[in-house]
Structures are given as structure tokens and as C-alpha cells.
Specification:
By secondary structure, the chain is of the alpha/beta class. About 40% of the residues lie in helices and about 20% in strands. Helix 1 (about 5-15) crosses helix 2 (about 15-30) and helix 2 (about 15-30) crosses helix 3 (about 45-55).
């Protein structure tokens, strides 16, 4: 089930959500340190992290699905958010340099149409970043946070989904090692949890962030030449079997030939014995 826009706004407006924004946003900036003149698109509910990318990019916009709802963003500037279906993005082909998906892939009704549209709107060689809950982490088990809704992914599952839609998986990062609790003590020690987790417990992070590059395949200019087949040689056993099943006329001829040879050898032996039995002339 996809979280509602009201629940998303309430979560990221809380103290826990602000901490999540800072910790996950730090990993996003590490994966995308520079975006000189890039056009960035956010899908799902990526607006909490788009502000970090808006400073170095040329243009930033966001698209939210109807099942989730939409809210204007940024609050103090002209709106840059649109409402559209995941499989029908209102953007021309090859018009976006970077796409950030947050609370999008795990809540999508169909993953393939969403990734197909992302591939379509990206420029050749463009990059996408997918932020999803980790299947091994604790955050996918807690429904009190947006990461507890939808389908969590492991690293191998996310790579397989990207490769199947002509994306080459790239560098990845992890975040959220503290338990998904609103306890003030845990929130105060969140930075320490992150340091320990990044060093010793990366497979058990709460969130995965993976980059992917759009792949382009070029068709060959000339058709491939037919390969010449080498002559096949039949084994000796096959030839022997073929002789055993030969037509009767060949076997008859063979017998006749063998009989003539036998009669010739018999006559030759009799003539030789006759010559040897005659007395020698004196």
C-alpha cells in the first residue's frame, strides 16, 4: 500500500523525518557530488531531497502519482510539482539528465512501466538514483515510517530489476542503521549508529540508494555474414552401420563378386598343381 501525501508530509516534518532527510541526503550527495547544469526530476516523494540538488543543477521538478496525492513545492517559490501516472510521464524523450526515485519503486503497482518511462525521459547516458527500503534492515518492518510500506529490495534484486530495463547498475550507498524508533535517546545517538553501521553492518542498513546509467545499444550497419560450415566426418561405426543396412542388390553383387573371385582362385590352384605334377624334360 502506498503512503498518503499527508502521512509523508507529517513524517518528514517530524524530528525523526528531519533526521532521515539529513542522513539519506548525505548519501545522495556522496553519489551525486556535482550536477553542473543538469535537469533533475524527482519521482514519488523526492521533494525532501531535491532541495539538496537544486543548488548545483539547472532545473529541478517533481512528479507525484495520483494514488499518493500531490502537494506544491517549494513552498516559497513557484510550484515545480506535477501530478501524473507513473507509466505516462508528461515529458519528451531524452529531456532529463538525472532522475531521483524516492518512495516510488517499492510502492509502484508495476515496476517495469515505471522504469521504462524513466529510461525514455533520460538523455543518452543519463543517470537515475533509486532509494528503496532494504530487505535485511529493520525499517522495512515498521509501518510507522514510509519505508515500511511496499516491497523492500535487496541489492541483488534491485540490480536485476535495473538490468532487465536496460540500466547498468552503478555505485550504491546505505543509510539508517538506527532502529526505526522515535525515542529521543536513539535520535540523539543516530550519528553514532551511522558510523558503526557504515563500518561494520552495511548489509543491515535500513535504506539502499543505487545509481544506474541508461544503456544504449547500436544496431550493426551490415548484416552478419553467414558462417561457413566445416564438412562433417562420419565415424567408422556409422559407416559400418550404413553397410549393414545397405540395399539387397548391393549385397547380391558383393556375393557374386566374392563367388567369381573364389572360382578364379580355385582354377588357378588346379592349374598350378597340374604343372607341378608333370615330369621335367631331360
Amino acid at each position: 500500500m502506498r503512503p498518503d501525501i499527508i502521512d509523508l508530509q507529517a513524517f518528514y516534518g517530524s524530528r525523526q523525518g528531519q533526521l532521515v532527510r539529513r542522513l539519506v541526503g548525505r548519501q545522495i550527495r556522496l553519489l551525486w557530488p556535482e550536477l553542473p547544469g543538469a535537469r533533475v526530476l524527482g519521482l514519488g516523494y523526492a521533494v525532501p531531497f531535491l532541495g539538496l540538488l537544486a543548488e548545483a543543477s539547472e532545473r529541478v521538478c517533481a512528479i507525484m502519482p495520483p494514488a499518493q496525492g500531490v502537494a506544491p513545492w517549494p513552498p516559497d517559490r513557484p510550484n515545480r510539482v506535477a501530478l501524473a501516472l507513473e507509466g505516462e510521464l508528461p515529458l519528451p524523450d531524452r529531456s532529463i539528465d538525472r532522475v531521483l526515485l524516492v518512495h516510488a519503486l517499492e510502492s509502484a503497482e508495476q515496476i517495469r512501466p515505471l522504469l521504462r518511462e524513466v529510461w525514455r525521459v533520460l538523455v543518452d547516458g543519463g543517470q537515475a538514483m533509486i532509494v528503496v527500503p532494504n530487505r535485511r534492515g529493520l525499517w522495512c518492518l515498521s509501518e510507522s515510517t514510509p519505508f515500511g510500506h511496499g516491497q523492500p529490495f535487496s541489492v541483488s534484486q534491485l540490480k536485476e530489476a535495473l538490468r532487465s530495463m536496460l540500466f547498468a547498475p552503478g555505485p550504491s550507498a546505505t543509510a539508517l542503521y538506527m532502529p526505526p524508533s522515535r525515542s529521543r535517546l536513539l535520535l540523539r545517538t543516530a550519528v553514532a549508529w551511522e558510523r558503526v553501521g557504515l563500518r561494520w553492518a552495511q548489509p543491515f542498513a535500513g535504506v539502499l540508494a543505487m545509481t544506474a546509467v541508461k544503456q544504449i545499444y547500436a544496431l550493426p550497419s551490415e548484416p552478419a555474414k553467414a558462417r561457413k560450415r566445416k564438412p562433417a566426418y562420419a565415424p567408422v561405426q556409422a559407416l559400418a552401420a550404413a553397410e549393414r543396412v545397405a540395399p539387397p542388390q548391393h549385397r547380391t553383387e558383393g556375393h557374386q563378386t566374392g563367388g567369381a573371385a573364389g572360382r578364379w582362385s580355385t582354377n588357378s590352384a588346379c592349374s598350378l598343381n597340374r604343372l607341378l605334377s608333370q615330369p621335367l624334360p631331360r
